[in-house]
Each structure stands twice: as structure tokens, then as C-alpha cells.
Amino acid sequence: MKERQSGVLMHISSLPGKYGIGSMGQEAYDFVDFLVRTKQRYWQILPLGTTSYGDSPYQSFSAFAGNTNFIDLDLLVKEALLTEDEVLGLDVGSNPAEVDYAKLFHVRRPILEKAVANMKAKGLPESYYRFAEENAFWLHTFAEYMAIKESFGLKSWTEWDDEHIRLRRPEALEDYRQRLADQIDYHRLTQYLFFQQWHNLKNYANENGIEIVGDMPIYIAADSADMWANPHFFKTDEQGRPAVVAGCPPDDFSAIGQLWGNPIYDWDAMKADGFTWWIARLRESFKLYDMVRIDHFIGFASFWEIPAGEETAVNGYRVEAPGFELFAAIKAELGDLNIIAEDLGSVTDKVIQLRDTTGFPGMKVLQFAFDPEGDSIELPHNHTNNVVAYTGTHDNHTIKGWYEEEMGPEARDFLDLYSNRKPDESVNQAMLRLLFSSVAFMAIVTMQDLLDLGDEARMNLPNTVGGNWIWRMTKDQLTPQVEETLLDLTTTYRRTNKKLVEKKQ
Fold first, then answer.
1. What average pLDDT does this structure show over 375-404?
2. Strands 291-294 and 302-307
3. Catalytic residue list contains 356
4. What pLDDT is recorded for position 502?
5. Does residue 455 have an active-site annotation?
6. Which helix (H) or strand (E) holds 7?
7. Is the pLDDT of residue 253 over 90?
């Protein structure tokens, strides 16, 4: 039996702050302190990668690079890389409860360029050169990709006008490296700043008994340095474009399935290479996180392949994947890893066998549980110890929005009966009781549900572009009452973090 524990799902972008998006600054450290006071063990976040069009953390220009929007400007001021005057009055949007990505896109780049220029003027620290050496296998390719991409008006690499650089011919690479040296330096140095701030934050969390749960998308974006550098690892057409794309089939969640559009791995090529790319990806992930949730784990057993150009996922088909061989190779190279398998969706016998063979805990989501006619495996009485229980994921509505907008009257009645909901008790309170009382060894509550928020706080609506990933918590929302609620749930249901280090006053 694994030790009972709990945590909060709260992405970095959703933290409060004065620069338009959450960052790795003081508010992040304050959030760690909140987790300590409420005796949590885990802070779960969404992927930290640099986001592409649509602002989704699950569509990144790199499987390894960090999102420079999370670099805290006040910390750069403290390091004398910026002045207070340079960060005053930035137009980052007028609504502190939302991220305005369009404004950030235009505002942050000139500021970070100033910081980079000041770094160079002062002389680059030795720690930068160590960082560049340790991360050479991805850093330089990423920096080159972004600089070249910018020189082509931000087009994806398959749309670049110069065939020679699309195909990464050595003479073309050398030419662009010389012409775009400053821009390449910018991307290398901002990655250094990102990882410096992230590791400082993670160290602070770990020193205070808080562990970080990261999130790894199973797929990468077609518009990425990874695919540009490794097209042989993907199923492509003659022009290098994805011949087939990823998604998931129609289900109760979506009648048309989900069309993600990511390129599909050529698993035969990866297997022939000893799965080195995946081994490297996980090795680097565990430098950033204490535990990793792998999104769409079922895709390692079999995956939904959709012909490129389809408008929905309906005409896709299922293809087998070498998950057993992959994770055997990973274990042989990296040992046992602290992984959560996101096994939601079409869970076949093979998925169950793969999950059980690896020993990774699966997931249970309470919002999927309340079928008044059935005995859902998501209901708490059907949970087992080796699972992680959630109120919902980033793709779900908040509890309040779900109850008010998505549930039918019979399902509501069943939830009220099942949870023994009292007349004066909110649906959030009832659901949080069910979550924390589950036999699942780990319970994760989303911050939006802890705050009892509705439609305005939904993180993502699948199959839509625009209006997603924008929610932010404001400072005034994290009240003493919210803190008391979480602490009471944690202590009542015996999920207190036994490894917690009390902060010195």
C-alpha cells in the first residue's frame, strides 16, 4: 500500500502576478508556502514547454525547451539584468484573471532582449557555459530552429522557402548560424534564464517538503525543433509534412473524437534506434520534476491514427504501439521512474496489461463517475490504492460548471445521494469529500475547484481554438477560508504530508 498523500493542480501560467501571466517569481514561492501550510505533498503543473499557436502547453516548439513567458521579470531586476523603469507600465492586458497571449507576444520579447544584452555586456557567467554544455543535445538545435523560423515570418519548417535549410544541409546550417548569430544567442540565453529560475523554484519546493508533478505530452508538435531535426522518427509525406496525425476516437466525451493534429511516431524507426529519443526525453524530464504524468498513456499500447487533412477524428483507425518494449528499454537505462499513467479514454486489455506491467498508477476522474444506471470504475468505491484521483483534468469543466451545465437531473440526483450531500453543502464540498476519502493513494484537486469557480475558470475546451489556457487566480481569491478547507480535508482523510518540512518563522 502506498502512503496516502494529496496535492493541488495549478499551472504556472495561472499564478497571480503583475506581468500578465504567472511566473517563477514571488507568487510561485508563495504558492509553495500555501501548500506547506495546508500539509500537501504535491504541486502538479501542466507542461512547461514553449507554446505555439493556440497557446496550448500540449503543442510546443520543443519537447525540451522551457516557456520563456514564465521567466519572472522582477527576478531579472534583482539580478541587475533589467531596471525597475524598464518593467514599469508594460501593457500586458487589463484583466488580472486572464492571460492575454497576444499582448505578451509583443511586449515580452523586447524586455527579454534587453536582459540578454545586459547579460552579454556583463560577461556571461560560468554557469551559462555549463548549462549550454549539459543541454547541448537539444539547446542549439532549438535555438537555431526558432531563429530560422522567425526569419521566415514564424512559418513552420515545412513551409520555409529555402529547401536546403528545411533539409538541414550542413552548408545551409552554417550559413544561417552566421547570419542569425544574435537571434540564436537570444534563444540560448533565455533558455538559460528559464531553467535557472525553474531549478531555484523547484529546489525551494523540495527543501520545504513539496514535490513537483510535471506533465509530459505523449506527442510533439509538427512545428517543432524535434521534428525538424528528427523527421525520420515520424510518419511523413515526401515534403516532410505529417502523413497521418494523432487524436482519439469518438467517445462519450466527444461524438467526433479529438483531432489533435500532432505527427505520429514511426515506432519501427524508434525501436531500431533503441528508443534513444524517448530515453533522453524522460531523463531530462526527471531533472525538472519529481514525478511525471504522461498524457495519453493508452497511446503506448495502441493509438488513433488519422489521415492528414481530415476535419475530425471520426475516420481514424487504431494502430498497435510497442509500449512494452519501450518501457523495458527505458527501465533498463534509467531504472524505476515515478510516473503517472494518464489512462483515460478507450482502455483496452492491452492498456491495462501495460500499465500493470510497468506498475505505474493510473488515473480516476470523479466527473466521469456519475452514471445513474451504471457502476462506473471512476466511482470512489471502485478505486484501488495504486491510482491518482482527480476532481477533473485540464480538459474538464470545473465541478461547478460541470454540475450546472453538463449533468442531467438524474445524474445530479445520483451524485447527491451517493455523496450524502447535505442541504447546506455545495456540490464542490461534496465532491472534495469524495476525492479525499477515496482509497486512492494520491488525491489531486484542481485549484479552480478548490476556489469553487464556474465556467469562467475552465482551462481548456477540447477541439476549440481561442479562449483556452487563459485562466488566472487573483491574489484575493486565495482566502484563509480556502486554506482552512484544504487543510481540514487533508488532515481528516489522513493525507498529511509526512515529509513536510515546517518553515521557520
1. 97
2. unpaired
3. no
4. 56
5. no
6. strand 5-9
7. no
